[in-house]
Amino acid sequence: MKVDKIISELTYKAVRSSGAGGQNVNKVSSKVVLSFDLKNSQALSEEQKELVENNLASRLTTDLLLILNCDEDRSQFRNKEIVTKRFLELLKKALFIPKERKPTRIPKSVIRKRIKDKKNISEIKKNRKRPDF
User: Fold this and answer.
1) Is position 81 within any domain?
2) 125 within some domain
3) Which residue of 42, 71, 77, 123 could cross-link 17, Cys pair, CB 3.0 to 4.6 Å?
4) Do 92 and 48 contact (CB within 8 A), yes or no?
5) What are phi and psi of 58, to 5 degrees?
6) Could you tell me whether strands 65-70 and 11-15 are parallel, antiparallel, or unpaired per DSSP bridges?
7) Residues 6+ positions from 29 with CB-CB distance below 8 Å
8) How deeply is 31 buried, as exposed, middle or buried, from its count of CB atoms within 10 A (0-12, 13-18, 19+)?
9) pLDDT for 18-50, tens place per residue?
10) What's the rounded mean pLDDT across residues 54-81?
11) Is residue 112 over pLDDT 70?
């Protein structure tokens, strides 16, 4: 994954933030909307695109656009940094392939020990009985 190339493909849009903030909200466009076109991306290979499409299916639009918002800070620049960082983490998680689990086998010595212990306990219980004359 080439981070510089991916960041160059991102498009940012500044929008007026909603919610409380007084006059500042009405004057300043501090909310940042990031969009990434997965279909036309040159930075990702076809396999990577397929992996991202499968893992982020619920977050993609029908045109395979990934859209993220950030209006946490009053600064547009800081919101841009936050949303870019969030996007890169999301992409990294989507591209992660977990290792295939190999089922472990129970060693024969453990099986032998278990059977031996069972026989031992069985013998102890047999010896509790009243002797038969």
Assistant:
1) yes
2) no
3) 71
4) no
5) -75, -20
6) unpaired
7) 14, 15, 16, 17, 76
8) buried
9) 766 667 777 778 899 999 999 998 899 999 999
10) 91
11) yes
What total of structural domains would you count in the chain?
Answer: 1
Q: Is residue 109 part of a domain?
A: no
Full residue range of the structural domain in which residue 83 is found:
3-95
Which range has highest mean pLDDT (25-29, 72-76, 93-97, 114-118)?
114-118
Cβ proximity of 32 and 83 under 8 Å:
yes
Structure tokens at 3: 């981070």
Residue 58 is assigned to a structural domain of this protein: yes
Q: Helices 46-55 and 76-95 meet at what angle, rounded to 10?
A: 100
pTM over 0.90: no
The CATH number of whichever domain residue 13 belongs to comes to: 3.30.160.20
Confidence at 54, pLDDT banded by 50, 70, 90: very high
